[in-house]
Amino acid sequence: MTVIRFEHPRRSLSDVLAPYVAFAAKAFSREATYRMEVFTNVGSLIVRLYLMKMVWVALYAQNAAPAGVPLHAILTYTCVALLMSLVLEIDGTRAIREKIREGTIATDLMKPISLPMYFFSDGVGMTLLHGVLIVPALLLSLFIVRIDVPSPSVLAAFALSFLLGYFVNFMLNFLMNCVAFWTLETFAIQLVVRWVSDLLSGQIVPLIFFPGVLQRIVLALPFAAIYSTPLLIYLGKIPPSGYLGAMAAQAGWAAAFALLSALVWRAAQRRVVVQGG
User: Fold this and answer.
1) Residue 142 has pLDDT above 60, yes or no
2) CA-based Rg of the chain, rounded to a whole angstrom?
3) Alpha carbon of 188 to those of 82, 95, 196: distances in Å?
4) What secondary structure does DSSP assign to 198-259, as a single string?
5) Which of 45, 122, 164, 238 could form a disulfide bond with 27, CB atoms 3.0-4.6 angstroms apart?
6) Is the pLDDT of residue 154 over 90?
């Protein structure tokens, strides 16, 4: 007797990733259609940079700023942090709560794709466009402040740390929006977490300005992995000998949030099934 075996063809990695690359490209095109919003983002960044420059100049003129960081360094820190915000303030996972409110999340879960990967690729597409905006924003910023440029090795370490911070930020946003499976609305929790993140991530004020024990506490929190670690590497406050430890901490927070996200997502899927009968 001849036995006929039906084997599923093995898919290569490129075949698996192809749909998500297409999702990212679509998100890039979609985001590019909102030209006025694009110009508004760049204009807003320049205004914020000018205002922050005036604040820091006034503080240093009155000797009210902490010692150890010269004015040109803090202005560089502020400018780079604002340029980073063009990318890090993009939340590709906000579509989760929108789909839950619209009721389309149930049909999306039946599609032969990974929804978390879809949200990630959608966010990457939007991020790529905003990454392009960094170029004109940087050129305009140079009319306001002089930016210190570190060595290529430091820039490479900064880029890697920035990428790790991006993953931590994505996972944090993903967790916040998954709360919508239980509450249908996430505005309140996002407002609180965003406020805490802005304060404790080092986006506005360098965390090394915090005193004593408080500084060690805020540097150990996951928020520091988003902005503070890449920025302190850029400024040279984290020396090359400290790169491995700093990035290991970022990778650890990213892995912890990824594990927690997987558990929350599994629980959320069961909740949708129960609600759907």
Assistant:
1) yes
2) 21
3) 24, 17, 12
4) HHHSSSSS-GGGS-HHHHHHHHHSGGGGTTHHHHHHHHTSS-GGGHHHHHHHHHHHHHHHHH
5) 122
6) yes
Contact 54, 151 (CB under 8 A): no
pTM here?
0.86
Residue type, 239: P
Mean pLDDT for all residues in the chain: 83
* Phi and psi at residue 125, to the nearest 5°: -60, -45
Tokens representing 198?
């802005």
- The whole-angstrom separation of Cα 171 and Cα 175 is 6
Q: Residue 41's closest CA among 119, 136, 147, 146? A: 136
- Alpha carbon of residue 143 to chain centroid: 27
Percent of the chain with pLDDT over 90: 30
C-alpha span between 245 and 239 (Å, rounded): 11
